[in-house]
Structures are given as C-alpha cells and as structure tokens.
Design goal:
28% helix, 6-stranded parallel beta sheet, 7-stranded mixed beta sheet
C-alpha cells in the first residue's frame, strides 16, 4: 500500500507519499480501507520529530480515519467486511489501509457521508472525555472553549449547547467568531483585542467559567485560573502556548478549583474503547438527529498532506481539514 511517511523530521515538505508494507489486523483488530483521514496538530508535532507514536502503533501520521472494513482479525465480533466506519487511531490514518482495535471503531453516523465522517472520531472523543467524563459539565453551567473555531472548538460548542450549557469562546478575528456564534456560542471573545478573563466574568455576573477547555497550556495557565468559577474545572489538552508556567496555588485554592491534563493518543486501548463507547452512546444520537454536525474547512488529496499541514500552521481554517484518497469514497 501507499502511506505518508516521514523519512526525516522537518517542515511540511518532509511528508512523503511512499510504498510501505500492508498492515495485518491482529487479535481484536479490524483492517480499514481508508477513504479519508483528518489533520490534527499532533500530526504536525510528529512531523517535526516532537511526538512519536506509541510503541507498537503505526509509524505514519493520522489519528482518525473513515473507510470500509476490509478484513477482521481473530476474535472480532459485531463488525463485518464492507461496513462503513470511522475510527480513533494511535497513528496510521494517512495511508491506504490501517489496522485498529475494534473497540475504537464507530459506524458512520446517520446523515454523514463516508468522507466527512473522518472529521469526527478525534474531536468527539477528545471533547466528550474531557468536558463531560472528566470535567463533568452540567446543564446551566458555563464552558469556556479556547480556539473556538478549531475542530475541537466547533465540536465543544455544539455538544455543550446540546446539554444545556452556556458557551464562551476565544478565537482570532470576526469571521471565526461569527461562525462560532452561528454554532451557538453565547460569548464571543477576540483574544487579539479582548481580555478573556474580564469578558467571561462580565458575561457570568462575576462568577467565571465552570469548565475551561484549554489548548494553549503555559501561556494561559494564570489567566485560566483567574477565569474559573468557584469549584471550576480546567481541562488542559494542548501546549500551543508552551509547556512551563508558574501556578498561583493560593488562587487555585481560593477557587477550590481542579486542573486536569490529558492526552488521548497514548492511552491504553481499554480506556480509548470506553471513551469511544461513550461517544457512540451520547454523541452519535445527537449527530443523527442533526443537533451536532462535523465542521469541515476543506478536503485535500492525501498525497498532498504537506499542503494540509501548511493550512493548519497558518491557522486560517475553521473546523477540520480532511485528506481524501482517490477512488475510496473521496469527494
């Protein structure tokens, strides 16, 4: 088969479409003929040499895909060859075929085409596990989502509104903020011109955000703690703003706040299986009913993955950027 390989870490030009050995599904795995994958910032880090795949997983980038099941490994039940699916991966989505544990596979939701389904597994799993399973966002509470126009942000807005929460977002520029508003965000904050701490406090009568979903890390740590409500929960899922910061523990104690930091890729299969099962139970019905939808900025041919990485690096996109395979359900 062919896959996007990274012979040497570097810029987008380091990504090479090359012939590689076919994957073989092991015990409890299915083999997916890939129709599309999606680009995540973790892929950019892997390309740069900063985020190696977990031991034993595919060396190729790509944390999610959609496609058709081509083969079943030993011990797999509940799936059949030919089923149209999407899947959460530890790697290998930028390829013609990928083997994945059956517990990380989802049916393509009602009302979503095969290619677009590639935009769903990583964002739904990330948002549901962090905002709801860990931070326990409840109806009537306020969520602050940084990067509201990103794939993660656009899904967080929709899921939080679907459960009856108030949503504040940060994003850069009027176009991105307007789109967040169309998705249901109540408080629109341009991080280039406004102080999100002040804006969140003003929008909540001084209370602050009950849950904050943060992609920035160090750069926002102090302000995130100040923006928390009493008993607030800060969920850190990214490090775009650096990895080291000073924490005012007195301020956190005063808020009786909690900080969690999670990644999805390196979790054990059993944990990812539980997350995917929760997504299928809670999120898939919302997608089928039209209350929640994937947001796709554009699709590009998989062999042009370098161009897709440049799109993410320029941060001009809204939602997900997809990579499609010719002749495998691509549009």
């Amino acid at each position: 088969m062919y896959a996007i390989t990274i012979p040497e870490p570097g810029g987008p030009e380091a990504l090479q479409w090359a012939e590689v050995p076919d994957p073989v599904p092991g015990e409890g795995e299915v083999l997916i003929e890939v129709a599309a994958s999606a680009v995540n910032r973790a892929d950019l880090l892997q390309r740069q040499g900063f985020y190696d795949p977990p031991p034993g997983s595919s060396p190729y980038p790509g944390l999610e895909c959609s496609g058709r099941i081509a083969a079943l490994g030993p011990g797999v039940a509940g799936w059949s060859v030919g089923d149209e699916v999407c899947a959460l991966l530890a790697g290998g989505g930028y390829a013609e075929r990928v083997a994945v544990p059956a517990g990380q596979v989802l049916p393509v939701p009602d009302g979503v085409d095969l290619v677009t389904a590639a935009a769903l597994p990583e964002v739904t799993s990330t948002v549901w596990s962090n905002v709801f399973m860990v931070a326990h966002l409840r109806p009537g509470e306020t969520l602050l989502a940084h990067g509201g126009a990103s794939g993660i942000g656009t899904m967080a807005i929709q899921l939080a509104k679907a459960v009856g929460a108030k949503v504040a977002v940060t994003a850069g520029g009027k176009e991105k903020l307007a789109y967040c508003g169309e998705l249901g965000a109540d408080v629109l904050i341009d991080y280039r011109e406004q102080d999100f701490v002040e804006e969140v406090r003003a929008a909540t009568d001084g209370a602050g955000a009950d849950v904050i979903l943060d992609i920035m890390g160090a750069k926002y740590l102090d302000r995130n703690v100040r923006a928390l409500a009493v008993n607030g929960r800060l969920a850190i899922i990214g490090m775009q703003g650096g990895v080291k910061a000073e924490l005012n523990i007195a301020a956190l104690l005063g808020k009786r706040g909690a900080i969690t930091a999670t990644s999805l890729r390196g979790r054990p299969v059993a944990e990812k299986t539980a997350i995917v099962a929760a997504v299928r139970e809670h999120v898939w019905p919302l997608i089928g009913a039209g209350q929640v939808r994937p947001v796709v900025d554009r699709t590009l041919p998989m062999r042009d993955a370098a161009a897709a990485h440049r799109v993410l690096e320029e941060s001009g996109h809204i939602g997900k950027v997809l990579l499609t395979r010719e002749g495998a359900g691509a549009v």
